[in-house]
Structure formats: structure tokens, C-alpha cells
Design goal:
Length: 525
């Protein structure tokens, strides 16, 4: 029996694109290289895939819409990725970007990159009754929907009707036609939109007549609007100081919402701006294939991203209709409506440590248990990417990026635990500088105090002992419960938290020596 001669083995070099074409792996859980790299000259570079190390360039060309969801715990690299994405989009597509900044996390970076910061509540106002190119009838519908989303007015039909009729009357008195988007009078002079103060005045006139049959309903309608028109709190009841035409064409703009007093007013400002942006983009028409002219970022905007009837959900559901890209980001995916995950073109999943978060994401995006296990083991900067394609394709819709490759090194601060009982001397926890500064602002610290703590880290080569950090935070008025929550989010266990605060108390009181368990009991710790 003859034998087939064997060819000698040869070792040759080849690239990952060629390996991908040979398909030596059976259905690898990532798209083929030609798809990942197709937009290399007109896409946003993100990083290399986990299996074949293929460069991935994001483009809206193949996905159902240009909208993006990003989730990841604090310190996972979420805000770093957003900044990288905006920088590259400005170079590749000459995109403008608006960040609706809940915690003031981005304003320092925006200023450093030559962008513009607009601080609502700190000398800047946004008239809730501005039209933004809409007909008064359409704007009234939006305003009432917004008030229904953020207040309890929807539970009181008569108060809702009174408010809606008073807004209509305010536009009529300002000489607008309710069914027209004309903004000039018969002589060509510009018309000035009314404000909520005009609406309150109309309701009070109705009250003074004394003929309305439900005076308590009228009083409550007035009271609800007066909360938005009081002096010093009339952020949405004065003529606008913000020009929408300017902010959508000014490159990078941070709308700093930290000057507004609470979550409700921040949500009102953000939702109003989104409504104006949506209308502005709709009027300007279709965009160039594969390019994005405007990117709007909503980070931790749970109040308006979690409601099914929010304009945010509507924009994502209606896909490309409004000619801009919306990025919705959160540490907690359950704060984002499931309709957003089901309808965005792309979802980036960074480090996520809670099982219920992963249940929510897996139920929304239908990725495999293999990918779930990978996500559980992610380090900083790793990401799973889910893409909703235009047409069914014969490869995985969810794949892993080994590391998001950003524009600059991520700057960490290190909190050391030297001297803490039961913790190795060299142990420390790292947190991104910008995320740490955002956390300080969420604690309610002033810019001056944020700078003081930041400078203390910088002078000590970006390192501070946890006891000293606790003392600084308490000195500036941060509640101990907030500090405990912060430490626990960073993975510190209860016993270590107790020892940290015990040592902080001893140091504050000028005492020395090692506290005993008896002292801990006396303190009730």
C-alpha cells in the first residue's frame, strides 16, 4: 500500500485579518475582521477584540440607530470612554457635543480641552416656554408632559386643565398664533415668548374674579407653578440666557446642572434642553451617511432615562429621525429604561459587579452565559459591546474589547489603608481623578473644598491615607453615612470601616495608641 508523502511543516507569519478569514475557530463570539475594521477611515477607534485582537472602529452605518447606552460601576472607565469618544468624534466627523452634566463631573475636563461651560442656576436661565422652532400647541404638549413626568399634576385633571389653558392664554397675550411656528408679528418684529410668571399671573387673575367653581383646585395649580417662579429659584421662569443655536454649533459644551437645587430641577433643565435639541435637529434634516453632527451625553440621568414616557426613550425608539446621537450612561443599568437597551444601536458594558444588574442586562440584550462570565471578571477599561444591526448577520451581536484605548492615560488617586487593622500595609484602593472629584461634588462640597482635597492628593503624589481622607471629608461637612456608603462601594468591609472611623476619632481627639475592642463597644460601634 502506497503512502501519501507528507509535506514538511512550515512556520510563517500572518496577521489577524488573515487568521479571521481562515476561521480556525468555530463561530468565534465576535464579528469578522472586515466588519470590525471596515470604518477605519471614517469611524471611532475603540480598541482591540479579546479573541483575535482585531482593531474595532465604531460607526453608525450598520446599526439600527446612532444612539448609545454605556453602563459600568464607578472606576470602570465609563467617563474616560465617553471623553475619548467625544474627542475622536470631533476629529473624525467634526462633531459638536453637549454634555448634560448632573454632578459637574465633566466641566474641568471640558475647560481643559478648550470647550465651553454653561452653568444653569449660576447666572444662566432657561425659559420653559421657549419654542425652539415649535408651534405653541406642540410646545404646550411637551411642557405638560414634562410637568406630568416630574410632578404629580397628572393625578389632578382639573389642575392640569387650568395650567394648560393658562399657558395657552400666555402665548396668545404675547401675540403668538397657537397653530403656527411664526415668531414675528405682522410688521416683522420678533415676538418674545411668555414665561411661567405670566402663566401664574393669569391664574391669579382668575382667582381674583372669584367666579371659579373649584377654588381649591385653582389655588393648588397656582402653588405648584409658584415653586418654579420664586425669586432666586426662577431658573426656568425668566427669559433664556442660553442660545440653542450657539450650543449646538460650539464644539464641546458642558451644561453644568450642579447650580440647580435638587434632582427635580436638574431633570427639568435636562429634559427641556433635550426637547429643544430634538426639534432643532429634526428641522435641520438628514445627516451625511456615517457621520454624526451632534452628540448629546446624559450621564446618571436616571430621573428622565428610566421613565417609559420620557422624551429620552422616545428619541431612542424613533432611531435616526432626529439627526443626532444620544449617549445615555449610568453606574446602575436598572436606572435606565429597558426600552432604551432594547432600542439603542450600541450598548457598551464595562465592569459590572452586581448579579441583579447582569440579570437586567442579559434579559434586555440576550447575550450568552459565556459573555456574562467574562463581564463578571472585567478589569478597568474592558468592555462588552452589543450592536443591533440593520439586517440579520451570521455572527455574534455581542463581543468583548480587551481594553478601551483612550486618548490619554487614566489618572488614578490612591487611598491607602496603612495602619488599619487586618489590612496589609501595602494595600490601597484606586479611583479615577475625575470620578473622585464628581463624588466629592455629590457629597455637596463646594468647588473650593473639592480643589483643597484634590490638591492634597496631588501634593502627596496622588496618595492619601483613608483616615486622613475621612477627617478631611468630615471637616468639610460630609455626613458619616455618606462616607460609609462610599467606602462600601469601594469594597471595604464592615469591620474595616469600624476600624477606620475609630482611628479617625482618636486622631481628631489627639489620642495615641491602638484602640481596643472594649473601646469600640463603649463607642457603640
Amino acid at each position: 500500500m502506497s503512502r501519501i508523502p507528507k509535506a514538511p511543516l512550515k512556520v510563517v507569519e500572518t496577521n489577524n485579518v488573515e487568521i479571521g478569514r481562515r476561521n480556525i475557530l468555530h463561530h468565534p463570539p465576535e464579528p469578522p475582521p472586515e466588519f470590525l475594521m471596515e470604518a477605519a477611515d471614517n469611524g471611532i477607534y475603540v480598541g482591540r477584540t479579546d479573541i483575535l485582537h482585531t482593531p474595532f472602529f465604531w460607526t453608525p452605518k450598520y446599526v439600527t440607530n446612532p444612539h448609545i447606552a454605556i453602563v459600568g460601576i464607578s472606576g470602570s472607565g465609563k467617563s474616560y470612554f465617553i471623553k475619548t469618544f467625544l474627542i475622536r468624534a470631533s476629529f473624525v466627523w467634526n462633531s459638536n457635543a453637549i454634555i448634560l452634566d448632573w454632578a459637574g463631573e465633566y466641566k474641568d475636563w471640558v475647560l481643559e480641552t478648550g470647550g465651553k461651560v454653561v452653568a444653569l442656576g449660576k447666572g444662566n436661565y432657561l425659559n420653559l416656554l421657549d419654542l425652539g422652532g415649535m408651534r405653541p400647541y406642540d410646545r404646550i404638549e411637551q411642557v405638560m408632559a414634562t410637568l406630568g413626568l416630574l410632578t404629580d399634576v397628572g393625578r389632578y385633571p382639573e389642575q392640569k386643565r387650568l395650567t394648560e389653558e393658562a399657558i395657552e392664554e400666555a402665548y396668545v397675550r404675547a401675540r403668538f398664533k397657537l397653530d403656527s411656528n411664526e415668531t414675528r408679528d405682522e410688521l416683522g418684529n420678533p415676538l418674545q415668548p411668555p414665561t411661567l410668571k405670566d402663566v401664574v399671573k393669569i391664574l391669579e387673575e382668575k382667582k381674583q374674579l372669584g367666579t371659579y367653581e373649584y377654588p381649591s383646585e385653582l389655588n393648588n395649580a397656582i402653588y405648584r407653578l409658584k415653586k418654579l417662579t420664586r425669586e432666586g429659584e426662577d431658573y426656568f421662569a425668566q427669559q433664556s440666557t442660553i442660545s440653542l443655536d450657539d450650543i449646538v454649533t460650539s464644539g464641546l459644551v458642558d451644561i453644568d446642572l450642579t447650580g440647580l437645587p435638587d434632582e427635580q430641577t436638574r431633570a427639568l433643565g435636562a429634559l427641556t434642553l433635550i426637547q429643544f435639541i430634538k426639534e432643532k435637529m429634526r428641522q435641520e434634516g438628514a445627516q451625511e451617511q456615517g457621520a454624526i453632527r451632534l452628540i448629546t451625553v446624559l450621564d446618571e440621568a436616571w430621573k428622565i432615562a428610566g421613565e417609559e414616557n420620557s422624551d429620552v426613550v422616545m428619541i431612542v425608539r424613533e432611531g435616526r429621525k432626529y439627526n443626532f446621537s444620544l449617549i445615555v450612561a449610568s453606574q446602575n443599568p436598572t436606572d435606565i429604561s429597558q426600552a432604551i437597551f432594547s432600542n439603542v444601536g450600541t450598548t457598551f458594558i464595562l465592569k459590572t459587579k452586581f448579579e441583579n444588574y447582569l440579570d437586567y442586562l442579559q434579559g434586555s440584550l440576550r447575550f450568552s452565559n459565556y459573555l456574562r462570565k467574562k463581564i463578571m471578571g472585567f478589569g478597568v477599561g474592558q468592555a462588552a459591546i452589543n450592536m443591533a444591526f440593520h439586517v440579520p448577520l451570521q455572527f455574534s451581536q455581542t463581543f468583548v474589547i480587551k481594553h478601551i484605548e483612550g486618548e490619554e492615560p487614566i489618572k488614578d488617586y490612591f487611598i491607602s489603608f496603612e495602619g488599619i487593622e487586618g489590612v496589609p500595609m501595602a494595600f490601597s484602593i484606586s479611583i479615577k481623578k475625575n470620578e473622585f472629584r464628581a463624588r466629592l461634588r455629590r457629597f455637596g462640597l463646594s468647588d473650593e473644598h473639592v480643589e483643597a482635597i484634590t490638591n492634597a492628593f496631588e501634593k502627596a503624589y496622588r496618595r492619601m491615607n483613608v483616615v486622613d481622607l475621612v477627617l478631611q471629608l468630615e471637616r468639610y461637612g460630609v455626613d458619616r453615612r455618606q462616607i460609609v456608603d462610599f467606602l462600601k462601594e469601594m469594597g471595604v468591609n464592615d469591620a474595616t470601616v469600624i476600624d477606620i472611623f475609630t482611628k479617625a476619632d482618636f486622631k481628631r481627639e489627639g489620642k495615641k495608641g491602638k484602640p481596643t475592642r472594649l473601646l469600640l463597644k463603649k463607642k457603640g460601634k
